[in-house]
Structures are given as C-alpha cells and as structure tokens.
Design a protein that fits this description.
Helix content: 10-25%
Mean pLDDT: 94
Structural class: alpha+beta
Largest sheet: 6 strands, antiparallel
Strand content: 35-45%
Number of domains: 1
Number of strands: 6
CATH superfamily: Hotdog Thioesterase
Order of helices and strands: HEEHEEEE
CATH topology: Thiol Ester Dehydrase, Chain A
Distance between the termini: 33 Å
Number of helices: 2
Low-confidence stretches: none
C-alpha cells in the first residue's frame, strides 16, 4: 500500500484531535507498518508535563504505537466500519530518552504473531536513528457496539 495521509488515517481510526497521534503512514505491508508522529509544542499535554521541560508522556508514545498497529489491522479487513481495534496489553515497555517538541517520531510495528481477531506486535519509536521507546503490544479486533472496555 502507498503512503496514507491524515485524511486516510482518519478514515480508518476513530480517534480525533487531540488524541489522534499518527500523522502519516510511510509504508505498510502484510505484517509491518511505519508511521510518523510530528511532536509539536502546542499539544495540550505539554502544558503540564512538564511546563519548564516539556516531555511527551511515555503512555502517549505507546498510544501512538497502538494507533499505528490499529491502522495495520483495520487496513486489512473489508468490514472495518463495523470494527474497533483495542489495545489489550503492553509488555516489556522501555523508554530510552525523552521525546520533546520538535522531534519527529518514526513509529514501527512488526507483527510477531497474528490471528484474525488478535495480534501481538513489536513496536518501536525512533527519533532519527535512535530508538526512544519500545514495547510488545497486544491488539484485539472487536465488533462495534459489543465492546466493554474499561
């Protein structure tokens, strides 16, 4: 599949500002995807995390990786308008260095095990050539309306 812009991403994911954390898909295959998240100073979390030294919260980096995995999963199915992808697990999360305004995150997902309704994937976030965060993610596909997530 070719690159996807923000309009195509919005067609796949239900997230919207300020919680849509994927700006562009660079490359997508059967078991991998690469995306971009531009980190800007005007994002709402920077006003409180931390005002004198703004750092993107690690949980939002993990969420950006999960959204990238969601694009991969939803892009493969035909009846995606009736489905949601939920993050069901995070293992082995590591944060290597702070992500700050002006950074561009390259989000890489590689499926290590997949079924039609569940994937386990290695997620890595890079700034330039430096890995700044990584985690093993579990994502599940569920019908809309029938999900009860807390």
């Amino acid at each position: 599949m070719a690159e996807l812009d923000i309009l195509a991403i919005r067609g796949l994911l239900p997230h919207r500002y300020p919680f849509l954390l994927v700006d562009r898909i660079l490359d997508i295959g059967d078991d991998y995807i690469t995306a971009i998240k531009n980190v800007t100073a005007n994002e709402p979390h920077f006003t409180g995390h931390f005002p004198d030294f703004p750092i993107m919260p690690g949980v939002l980096i993990i969420e950006a990786l999960a959204q990238t995995a969601g694009v991969l999963v939803l892009g493969k199915i035909e009846n995606r308008e009736n489905k949601h992808v939920f993050l069901a697990g995070v293992d082995e999360a590591r944060f290597r260095r702070p992500v700050v305004p002006g950074d561009q995150l390259r989000l890489e997902i590689k499926v290590v095990h997949g079924r039609p309704t569940r994937i386990k994937a290695q997620g890595r976030a890079f700034v330039g050539d430096q890995c700044v965060a990584e985690a093993m993610l579990v994502c599940v596909l569920q019908d809309k309306g029938g999900a009860s997530q807390s």
